[in-house]
Specification:
alpha/beta, four-stranded mixed β-sheet
Length: 322
């Protein structure tokens, strides 16, 4: 497991997508009457409690890994839901229609009352509680990391995975939250519109990944490398190698209908989400071991395409059954 790759994922796409869903909770920790130092303290406490909560969650997911795994289609459905939710948040930010106000998540009423009643020096409790509440609204990228934590089947690895991912999201949260609290109202509106545009792009990206995890590919694999299976002892032998940059080699494999397949997937030093090999229609969602191949056996019984992808829907490939 390459934790630096996981950290970088949080620093980039993870930070922005998480901010789209959890930014409302973060801004709820900062009230207008707070001083600059008090706002900084609120942001820091919020992020520390979030990091702690997700690390504990990763520990629990690692424990559950051997007996509980979300199916690819469930993960795909969650990604599609999150994508639509991010789109709704973006459209509300742009004030397209009043109906989109329902997409803005608010903390529970009792916490909102606490926020307004507390004085500046007593707001720490609210920041900590709201930071913990973020585990209830994970973004699409966070879900992928949670699935990776489950797939490890090891509590400490699951906890470390979530720790490094959330640690990567912290700089984005801190900078944007602090910046938003310091700029004037005019520039704040411009800033929010820019963020909304990024959210729309990210929602389209996440929606497409959700479709892939659900077994729906709207496009053919990029830089398609096609291979025929090799039939040996009435079994189709197929080998796929993973790569951090291009995903799968080959990424298009021609199979014969009704002939058993023995698929060998080699990690080939891959460290990103491509290590989690997913075949949605076959309910396959497995981590490729580092030193030995992942062996998958199945028999294609229908003509057509069988898509495969990674745990985040970023990389794609397909079996073509003839």
């Amino acid at each position: 497991m390459n934790y630096w790759i996981i950290f970088f994922t949080g620093l980039t796409t993870g930070g922005l997508s998480c901010l789209a869903l959890q930014g409302g909770l973060l801004t709820s920790t900062m009230v207008e009457s707070q001083t600059k130092s008090a706002r900084i303290r609120s942001i820091i406490l919020f992020l520390i409690s979030k990091l702690t909560a997700y690390t504990i969650l990763g520990l629990i997911l690692g424990f559950l890994g051997e007996v509980f795994t979300l199916s690819p289609k469930v993960l795909g459905g969650l990604n599609i839901f999150i994508a639509l939710f991010m789109l709704g948040v973006a459209l509300e930010t742009l004030k397209v229609h009043p109906i989109f106000k329902f997409f803005l998540l608010q903390p529970p009423k009792f916490l909102r009352r606490l926020i307004f009643k507390q004085e500046n020096e007593k707001s720490s409790f609210t920041a900590i509680i709201l930071g913990i509440f973020t585990v209830l609204i994970p973004c699409g990228v966070t879900q992928a990391m949670m699935a990776l934590a489950v797939s490890t089947g090891r509590p400490l690895v699951g906890a470390t995975t979530m720790f490094f991912f959330i640690l990567g999201t912290i700089p984005v949260f801190f900078i944007l939250a602090y910046f938003a609290s310091e700029i004037g109202e005019k520039f704040k509106n411009i800033f929010y519109k820019i963020v909304a545009v990024f959210l729309i792009i990210l929602s389209i990206y996440t929606f497409n990944h959700g479709l892939r995890l659900s077994g729906i590919n709207l496009s053919t694999p990029k830089n398609s490398i096609s291979r025929n299976s090799v039939i040996d002892d009435n079994t189709q032998k197929v080998t796929i190698k993973l790569d951090n940059k291009i995903g799968y080699t080959p990424n298009s494999i021609i199979l014969k209908k009704d002939v058993p397949v023995e698929l060998s997937v080699y990690a080939n030093s891959a460290t990103t989400c491509v290590r989690v090999f997913v075949i949605p229609s076959l309910k396959v969602n497995k981590v490729v071991p580092e030193k030995e191949p992942l062996i998958i056996k199945f028999t294609p019984t229908k003509l057509g395409k069988i898509p495969f992808t990674c745990s985040m829907g970023m990389y794609q490939g397909e079996f073509v059954v003839e």
